[in-house]
UniProtKB/TrEMBL annotation:
Residues 13-171 form the Nitroreductase domain. It comes from Bifidobacterium phasiani. It holds the Pfam family Nitroreductase. Belongs to the flavin oxidoreductase frp family. Keywords: Flavoprotein, FMN, NADP, Oxidoreductase. This is Nitroreductase family protein.
Length: 258
């Protein structure tokens, strides 16, 4: 990736997922800085409705690796699970005599759920960017949601909380190539979404070829499947990542029907 003359922009343009870390701890000063950066991320209506659990227990790390089917999760020197968190706000509201289970209680409604989820993602991204800027490597862990119910039990998540994503951080012990991104014309539009589907995917063939020439360090003996093949496979995937969302959110006290 070319150097655009701005340190922050260059960090973002050169970010890549790191899945192998050196067996070296992250010092407390760096940890504090990363957590403070996450706290400075935008917050919808200033509700601060997210939290992050720093996982240090090897037993829990191993279980997260098992849930996510990714052994490297257990080896991450620094590991977080970000959650949307309206539990804390419910507790605070109750000190002001708001009934956290009343019909007029809205912190468990669908809008607040999605906004809290957004806030958690923004905080995670801020932390990831800061870590990359400090020369650390990261990988975002959506795989830990493969068994949401087990994850909720493992982390003892209370009512009005829900897991969003994990983030593994450490000193990189690999140097993967930058993974290709689709043409901007396929992802950035002006004023409205394209009405012509043919126009929408113009450039797909070239992108497929570019992706197919990329070699992922997780499987270095063969090129990655073309992007369109990956989409087609995931469009009918019946795996665990397609588990229904609603039952788990209901058990956590959320009302996504309102």
């Amino acid at each position: 990736m070319s150097d655009l003359g701005n340190e922050t922009v260059n960090v973002l343009l050169n970010r890549r997922s790191i899945r192998k870390f050196k067996d070296e701890p992250i010092d407390d000063e760096t940890i504090a800085a990363l957590e403070l950066v996450a706290q400075r991320a935008p917050s919808s209506q200033y509700l601060n409705d997210w939290s992050a659990i720093r996982v240090t227990d090897p037993r829990i790390k191993a279980k997260l690796a098992e849930i996510g089917h990714q052994p490297y999760i257990a080896t991450a020197p620094l590991l977080y699970v970000f959650i949307l968190d309206e539990h804390r706000n419910a507790v605070i509201a109750e000190t002001k005599e708001v009934d956290g289970h009343g019909e007029d209680f809205t912190l468990n409604a669908s809008y607040r759920f999605t906004q809290a989820q957004n806030d958690a993602v923004l905080a995670l991204h801020a932390m990831e960017t800061a870590a990359n800027a400090l020369g650390l490597g990261c990988v975002v862990l959506g795989s830990i949601l493969a068994d949401t119910a087990d994850l909720i039990r493992l982390l003892k998540l209370p009512e009005y909380t829900y897991p969003v994503l994990g983030l593994a951080i450490g000193k990189p012990d690999q140097e993967p190539e930058l993974k290709p991104r689709m043409p901007r014309t396929m992802q950035f539009f002006e004023n409205e979404y394209p009405a012509d589907d043919v126009e929408l995917i113009d450039g797909l063939e070239d992108f497929d070829n570019e992706v197919h020439q990329y070699y992922d360090l997780r499987n270095t003996d063969r090129p990655v499947d073309a992007f369109s093949d990956q989409i087609a496979r995931n469009a009918v995937d019946q795996g665990v990542l397609n588990q229904p969302l609603l039952p788990h959110t209901e058990r956590q006290g959320f009302r996504l029907d309102r």
